[in-house]
């Protein structure tokens, strides 16, 4: 399992394959996990989700951006997607990776880009989530959030339960809208828990701490054990349903997604789209090699 995970994480970081895949169109069954390569297809998918009371967080896929031209082009695509959310009147917000808009190039340039995005989104009351990437980018992501959050309360981020520092970060961000996840990258034991059991325990601990606070929380997981425990916890503690939501990725456990929404829980699906699907897809295979079955079904059903 460890070896398979490492294998797919290594593939996700391969820049040659990442740039090659942009020209392939959606291949290898990625169409089951990625809602198309253009805005029209993602809007269609979001409307379908909205029709069953599910909201969307749209990820205009892209990472490993090392030139200002690419980062500026990514920013423009994100701005276009924000305009499309408004124009189509869909219930959706955006998830953004800061490396996509320049974090590996220059901090101030990235801050300028995300400020422009936050401003455009604030105009339409659209929330912007800064996805959390690997540990090497964490502090800068939090610094950027701190720089933005007074002016733009419509920006939040993600806390990863596998990191030792997350409980402290949670306290620092107690007034900010946050998504809580287990964590998707490969981090060293110096900074992160390694066993599934330890990560699961910390995940539940952080979720409970957070749900007792005031700010809005997204519990992002496909793990039914965690979901069931959260359901029990909110009931036992009278936590109002408008204080939290569940989130899952597009294409995963779709029946469970609909059931949770139908039960009256706020629910948001993370909907990735675009040509830059390769690293996202490989990380999903790393998390759960059984996802290959989903991908294979995608390959044969095309
Ligand atoms: P995990 O993969 O640990 O599975 C637990 C159990 O749940 C499995 O053993 C199985 O029983 C069941 N299960 C899981 N998937 C199933 C399926 N498809 N079908 C049937 N059973 C299944 N990470 C990050 O580092 N930064 C980020 O910004 C984000 N953002 C993000 C947004 C959203 C909406 C989600 C759902 C996830 C993320 N992640 C993330 C990824 C996250 O950190 C984590 O890697 C994955 O969600 C996998 O962990 P899970 O909690 O889903 O359960």
CATH class identity: Alpha Beta
Q: How many separate helices?
A: 12
End-to-end Cα distance: 29 Å
Query: What is the ordering of alpha helices and beta strands?
Result: HHHEHEHEHEHEHEHEHEHH
For the sheet with most strands, the description reads:
8 strands, parallel, barrel
Mean pLDDT metric? 91
CATH topology: TIM Barrel
- Beta-strand residue percentage: 5-15%
Q: SS-based structural class?
A: alpha/beta
Shape designation:
globular
Extract low-pLDDT stretches: none
Rg value: 18 Å
Number of domains: 1
Q: Give the proportion of residues in helices.
A: 40-55%
CATH architecture: Alpha-Beta Barrel
How would you sum up this structure, described in words?
- By secondary structure, the protein is α/β, with parallel strands linked by helices.
- The protein has one domain: TIM Barrel (Alpha-Beta Barrel), CATH 3.20.20.220.
- It contains twelve helices and eight strands.
- It has an eight-stranded parallel barrel with strand order 1-2-3-4-5-6-7-8, surrounded by seven helices.
- α1 packs antiparallel against α11 (278-287) and α5 (107-123) packs across α6.
- It starts with a helix and ends with a helix.
- The model has no long low-confidence stretch (mean pLDDT 91).
- The site of dihydroflavine-adenine dinucleotide (FDA) has 21 residues, from β4 and β7.
């Amino acid at each position: 399992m460890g070896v398979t995970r490492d294998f797919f994480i290594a593939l996700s970081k391969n820049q040659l394959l990442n740039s090659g895949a942009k020209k392939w169109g959606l291949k290898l069954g990625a169409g089951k996990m990625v809602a198309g390569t253009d805005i029209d297809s993602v809007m269609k998918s979001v409307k379908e989700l909205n029709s069953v009371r599910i909201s969307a967080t749209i990820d205009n896929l892209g990472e490993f951006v090392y030139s200002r031209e690419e980062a500026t082009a990514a920013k423009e695509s994100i701005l276009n997607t924000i305009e499309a959310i408004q124009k189509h009147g869909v219930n959706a917000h955006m998830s953004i990776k800061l490396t996509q808009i320049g974090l590996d190039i220059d901090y101030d340039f990235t801050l300028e880009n995300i400020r422009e995005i936050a401003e455009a989104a604030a105009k339409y009351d659209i929330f912007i989530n800064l996805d959390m990437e690997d540990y090497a980018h964490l502090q800068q992501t939090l610094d950027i959030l701190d720089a933005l959050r007074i002016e733009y309360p419509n920006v939040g981020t993600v806390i990863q339960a596998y990191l030792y520092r997350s409980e402290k970060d949670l306290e620092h961000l107690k007034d900010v809208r946050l998504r809580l996840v287990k964590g998707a990258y490969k981090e060293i034991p110096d900074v992160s828990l390694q066993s599934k059991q330890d990560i699961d325990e910390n995940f539940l601990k952080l979720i409970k701490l957070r749900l007792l606070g005031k700010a809005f929380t997204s519990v992002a997981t496909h793990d039914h054990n965690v979901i069931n425990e959260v359901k029990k916890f909110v009931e036992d503690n009278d936590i109002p349903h408008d204080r939290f939501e569940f989130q899952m990725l597009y294409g995963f456990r779709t029946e469970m997604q609909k059931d949770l929404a139908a039960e009256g829980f706020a629910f948001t699906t993370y909907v990735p789209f675009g040509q830059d699907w390769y690293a996202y897809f490989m990380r999903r295979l790393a998390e759960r090699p059984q996802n290959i079955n989903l991908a294979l079904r995608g390959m044969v059903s095309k």
